[in-house]
Amino acid sequence: MQVILFDIDGTLISTGGAGRDALNTALEVAFAVRDPHPVFLQGRTDRGICQEYFAQHGITATEANWERFQAAYLASLEQHLTSRPRTLLPGVQALLAELQALPRLAVGLLTGNVREGARRKLTHYGLHERFPFGGFGDLHPERDDVAREALAAACTHTGLDLRGDQVWVIGDTPADIRCARAIGAHVIAVATGDHQLDELAAAQPDVLVTNLTTTAEILEHLTSGL
Ligand SMILES: [Mg+2]
Predict the structure, then answer these.
(1) Cα(62) to centroid of ligand 1, in Å?
(2) How far is the CA of 191 from the centre of ligand 1 (A)?
(3) In terms of residue numbers, what domain contains 181?
(4) Using CA atoms, how far apart are residues 156 and 158, in angstroms rounded to an integer?
(5) How many angstroms does the Cα of residue 41 sit away from the middle of ligand 1?
(6) CB 156 within 8 A of CB 162
């Protein structure tokens, strides 16, 4: 058995800034914060991003405030998603179709999005049913912990006691590469997000690709342990 864990933003889809805009709308609607401090989003978890916004704007990091933030974020996400073009990143559709046809492979998510945000984004792009399990950004400020959650979810999904070296992570940031290492997984870095090839190379992925269109080459790596 081999497990493939996909990041979402910059790897499967580009929302054209809908995610950032929904975060900004949430801050304004729930906490009357306009023009929030710029916060780096790439490769981070929603929980971690929210904590940084709260710290920057003097909002107490209570569970109730986190719930308020999440509710406002989810309420505005759909509108932001539908107001711009739907961009599936190159090669994604073909690669997912090939993976689904292969036996002894389980395909899931390893994303900093909250679970419901991931569901809404992927449903908007017609991809949600491809990912029956995953690790999400609801509980963990650090992406390494999301990787641990995703591995545990893969074990539950398959009913197997999987090792990290049976897992491939596919993501577009140095944080994706680091979190894969945290669980002993292999990693393919793809330069379809905001990080250039040289930045990703510096974080030493096992495989580095410009995009996911080289389906045969990528499949060869992903199935090498089968
Ligand atoms: Mg990403």
Answers:
(1) 27
(2) 10
(3) 2-15+88-222
(4) 6
(5) 9
(6) no
**pLDDT tens digits for 141-197?**
999 999 999 999 999 999 999 999 999 999 999 999 999 999 999 999 999 999 999
**Domains in the chain: how many in total?**
2
Phi, psi of 111 (to 5 degrees): -135, 150
Say what the pTM is.
Answer: 0.97
**pLDDT on residue 225:** 82
Distance 22 CA to ligand 1 centre (A): 16
The reported pLDDT for the residue numbered 36 is 94
CA-CA distance, 91 to 80, in Å (whole number)? 24
CATH number at residue 146: 3.40.50.1000
How much distance in Å is there from the Cα of 60 to the middle of ligand 1?
27
Residues 75 and 111 in one domain: no
Residues 137 and 197 in one domain: yes
Residues lower than pLDDT 50 in the chain: none
